[in-house]
Structure formats: C-alpha cells, structure tokens
Amino acid sequence: MLHQTVATTTTAAAATDTLFIFSNSFASRVKPITLSFLSMDCTNKQTHSLKCVSRDSHETQPRKDDVPIHGVSELVVGVLGGGQLGRMLCQAASQMAIKVMILDPLENCPASSLSYNHMVGSFDDSATVRQFAKRCDVLTVEIEHVDVETMEMLEQLGVDCQPKASTIRIIQIDDLESAKQSALGGFDRGLYVEKWAPFVKELAVIVARGRDNSILCYPVVETIHKENICHIVKAPANVTSDIRKRAADVAYKAVSSLEGAGVFAVELFLTGDGQILLNEVAPRPHNSGHHTIESCYTSQYEQHLRAVVGLPLGDPSMKTPAAVILGPVLQCTGPVEIMSRVNNLTHVGPSVHWYDKPEMQKQRKMGHVTIVGPSMGAVEERLKSMLKEEGFDCQSAVTPRVGIIMGSDSDLPVMKDAARILNMFGVKIVSAHRTPEMMFSYASSAHERDIQIIIAGAGGAAHLPGKYGSRTHSLACYWCPRACFLRWMDLIHSYPLCRCQGVSQLATVAINNATNAGLLAVRMLGIRDADLLARMSQYQEDTRNDVLTKAEKLEKDGWESYLNP
C-alpha cells in the first residue's frame, strides 16, 4: 500500500483545498520548475484513496481515482525487486512525486507499502516481467539476479531499460557448469588465472551515470567486513588523497565502459603497495551508499531515479564531514534483541533505518544505522559501545584526532600532561618522535588522516613547532617547549618560526605547560563537537568549584596551616 503525505492549505476566496506536493530538500538542488496544483472541492468532502496494491501475480489494480500526480517526471519507473533497496528508492521517489512500481514475489515485501503499485510475481520469470513492463515507462533493477534474456528481448521491442541489459549480462555471475567445462575440457582455449589479492583495505565508490553519459562519483568510502558481511562503512575513507583520486578514477573508468543510466557501486581492493584493484561492480544502489541519505546533498536513491528518468544528476558531495554506517547491529535473532540494541543507540543520536521485512532471522539484514558527525574521530567515538557489544576491536577502528609530536622521548615527561588531558576528555591521540624526513611527511598528510590538531614540543629543537605549522593544512598547532635553563626565553622571543606570521596559525602556551596545550586542543575540537563542548563546560565548572573550595580553606585556616595541614 502507498501512504502519501501532502501539505494542505485553504483558500477562502475559492473555497478549495490546494494540495502542494513538493520536497524542500529536492527543490534546493534543481532549477526552478513550474508545479501543478491539484484542487478539490471542499464542499463535497470527497477523499481520494492513494492505495494501490495488486495481490494477483499477473494483474495490477487501477487507482481508484483518476487524478494525476504531477511530479518532477511523469514517467512511471518500474523496479525489478522490492527489497530494502527498492524500499529506499520508493522513499526517495515520494519526495520527488515520481511514481515507482515494483515487481516482487513477496506480497508484503519491504517496498510494497511505499510503492505506487506492487505487482506480485517473480522478477526472473519472463512472462511476468513482460507483463510488468507494459505498465512502466522505464525499467530498472534493485537486484542484478534478473532474467537478462527477457530484458534483452524487451529492449528489442523498444522498452526503455536502465541500465542496459548488456550491462546486467556482464555483471551477472557466469554459469558454474560452463565454468567447470571450460576448466576441465576447454583445451583449445586459453587459460585465465587470478592470483591472490593481498589487500589491506576494501574501498567502494558509488558512481552515477546519466542518460547523457555524464558521470559523477561520490566520495570514496572504506568498507569493513565481518563474517563476509559488510559490518561498517566509513565515509570518507581514511586514506591519502592520492589513493582517493586513483580509486575514483578506476571506478569512473569501470562505469564509463558499461551501458545505461543509473547508480553503480564499484568495490575495490587497496593493496599494501598502494595498488587499486577492481573487485566487482553492482548496477544498482548499494549498501556502501546508505550513508548518502543523511550525509550527502543527493542520496544514491534520488540519484538513481534522476539518472533513469533523464533528470540532471545531483550534487554527490558530502554535506557532513564524516559518516559511519553500522549494518549487522540489526542482524539479530529476534525483536527483543533488536530493540535492546537500538535503545542503546539513542544517546548518540543515530538515524535508524528499518527494512520492514516480514520475518526476522539471524544474519538477515533487518536494517542499518547511520551516524554523522563533525569528524571521523567524533563519529567513531560514538560507536565504541556498539562495537564492544559486537566484539569488534574498538581501538583499531577509532581514528586519532590529535597528534602529539616530540623531538625525542626525553620530551615525554612534559608532553604526557597533554596526553592525560586528552584521555580525560576521551579524545583519541597518536604520539610520535620525528626525524627531518618524517616531519615533512607526517605534517603534509596529517589532514588526510583526519588529524585535526597537532601539539608539538621539543627541548632542544625550537624549530619543530614552526616547521610543522608551515607544512600542515587547516590544522592548529600548539607547542610547549621544555625549559632547559633561561636560554629558552631568548629562543622563544627571537626564533621567527615560533610566530610564523603569514605561514601558518600557531598558538603558543607557557613553557612546560602541556596541560594547557591539551585543554586548548579540546576547546578547539569543541567548536564542532557538542559532546566535547559540554565536557569542557563541566570541567570549567568543576575547576571553579575547586578553586572556591581552596580559597575558602585558605581564608579559614591561614596560609601556614594551608601549606602544612
């Protein structure tokens, strides 16, 4: 059944109710268009049903009203498959007032309640697909396991299939029996052998291709799998800008070699020596792109609809700095366990997506959770409790947000105070010594690793903070040099890189005062992290109360008793 919500206003002069069908999020990203308004006479109190579900496997019921819905496209989009991807396609379509029909064998499949029309039938049955195609203007898929021969025949008859059947055929898994025969008896043909791919990370890129062959890539993401199931997706991927660029380039070339419009998911391997290897391509929206609903200006589902109906592609860039998808947290044994885990997530403000599947089974994808935040480090911190419940290595999953660097380990007794403060506020840090070569590499790539602030200090290398500051991008650098006799005062005031005017932005704290450097770093992070800001406010209040208590004791007992209790 279709449930559609519209806004209603009353015009007194015309005594009519005017239905406005629009989406603020959609309208903000396209050129102005003329909207058609649908009016009904208020006096007859007539209501129109917007529900249309077919329970017959070869026929669909007509809508009970003859009033058209005017959206951004008048094309009826037919989707082969009505699972969770089809459901989220329908959700995006409702914002655009695009009519989406689905073909799925399950009467109560996830997309059924949200679709414009649901035809019950198998999407790999030729006769059923042909019957379904007659009711659609453009045919697309949410699953690649469809009858590709039927799609090829439909294309020959003039049916608009997006992406093209040739693309589906390339992507579908080859027949195992044919593969066996080729391996055992195909002596007159060449041999194709694949070596093991020693990858260190799995990456993915959502790529959109329009009818005009325009191609746009979403930010590269990292996918982390557990028991062969995508467990976590990090957007953007915590890799260097060069790797992101090369990954996007591979994905772009892969999709440009295929035919048809729509959204494609390109899965990649990153090897230890920096190679980007193509794993597979899915000709549809993908679970690695779920985060785009909350984190991007145009979700992958809206983008797919735009592409197949011929609208201009939307902006694929992220509107939030970081996002994480947690998938299998909802792959549980029953509703009690699911609700228990979801209730544990309420304190971090996630977006929970239920797939509305009829049966709950272990390891079945029942939904996903998306968390967005000001940085990848902040988002990952919010995942800690959930990851612990899942038996996941929290420490390896959390990205450091602050770097503490030193000239040598002799500076650690001072710099440990900054680390102590950051640990107290729950800020993940990374510490390092440096050589001249390491310094330039570390500073230049710090922002690519989501290091937002660097605290630098050295006992005999006063140039260290300034050099780091001149090599970093969009980072605040603090330094707290160790005091080795009074000559340090001369160095602080005379060394030009301590000020770095016109080169970088540095904040200098007092000699040996790494504590203040840590506090200053927390306050800087708190500008975009409400949780840290609240913790800092509480810390300041606690400090104020502590000072007042000490002042009262000093006044009451006198300085001698205060010093010798």
Automatic annotation (TrEMBL):
Reaction catalysed by this enzyme: 5-amino-1-(5-phospho-D-ribosyl)imidazole-4-carboxylate + H(+) = 5-amino-1-(5-phospho-beta-D-ribosyl)imidazole + CO2
Keyword flag Repeat: no
Coiled-coil parts of chain: none
GO biological process: 'de novo' IMP biosynthetic process
ATP-binding listed as a keyword: yes
GO cellular component: chloroplast
InterPro entries the record matches: Ade2_fungi/plant, ATP-grasp, ATP-grasp_carboxylate-amine, PreATP-grasp_dom_sf, PurE_ClassI, PurE_dom, PurK_C, PurT/PurK_preATP-grasp
Family annotation (SMART domains): AIRC
Top enzyme class: lyase
Family in the record: In the C-terminal section; belongs to the AIR carboxylase family. Class I subfamily.
Protein's name in the database: phosphoribosylaminoimidazole carboxylase
Organism: Fagus sylvatica
